[in-house]
């Protein structure tokens, strides 16, 4: 079991001692501009620092404005390039995994899942080829109301996996936890655990909102390499979030 918290790439080196004090790994977020600006040499230096201090990491790829299943070939090409570089940086960091957004929204595609899927297959085929052995490439639920698009996507790739996001589930899902996690159990490699009240993506600590964490307990454990990441967007919640994550998993 791997426990981690999210940290923007620009903040990693300045917070090494804080990370060590919390005894936790990190999920390093490269935003859309950072992934273009960062150099391989800089990331190699960060990788050495993490290795020397024994800090385990994963990577969160950029997602704003990107569309892995985009109909527009130019947008899809830009998306693929940023995702492939994210995988390249994850390789250099010797990360356990890299989390990406799949980009399906029924309102954008007018419910036409097949249009999104056909374009997505081209993108993920390119992205997965960049991953070194041992790096797990994952897609997480965002606006999806139920898991059918993931089931379709995973039917085409043996080496693409699932990151379950509790906060996004609480906002957008119309299906039960069982209906998500039972069919996707074999692909589940990571959970993003944060809370909200069902109205906005607040990224609160576990227990601060209305997500059914008691129900989620049935799907926790059972795998030594499962990654549990607390995703908090406010400095004020960092310590509480890590504490609540450890208590939830204990």
Structure characteristics:
single chain; alpha/beta; TIM Barrel; 8-stranded parallel barrel; globular
Task: Give the topology, please.
Layout: E1 2-8, H1 16-22, E2 25-29, H2 34-37, H3 40-53, E3 57-60, H4 73-93, E4 97-100, H5 113-128, E5 136-140, H6 148-154, E6 160-165, H7 166-172, H8 177-181, E7 188-193, H9 213-216, E8 227-230, H10 238-249
In short:
This protein is α/β, with parallel strands linked by helices and 250 residues long. It has a single domain, classed as TIM Barrel (Alpha-Beta Barrel), CATH 3.20.20.150.
Widest sheet, order of strands: 1-2-3-4-5-6-7-8
Domain count: the total is: 1
> Can you identify the CATH class?
Alpha Beta
CATH topology annotation: TIM Barrel
| Elements, N to C (H/E) | EHEHHEHEHEHEHHEHEH
Q: How many strands in all?
A: 8
The CATH H-level superfamily is Divalent-metal-dependent TIM barrel enzymes
Average of pLDDT: 96
Q: Briefly note the structural class of the backbone.
A: alpha/beta
Helix content: 25-40%
Largest sheet: 8 strands, parallel, barrel
Rg value:
17 Å
Q: Which percent range describes the beta-strand content?
A: 15-25%
List the uncertain runs. Answer: none
CATH architecture grouping = Alpha-Beta Barrel
| Spatial shape | globular
Counting DSSP H or I runs of 4 or more residues, the number of helices is 10
Distance between the termini: 11 Å
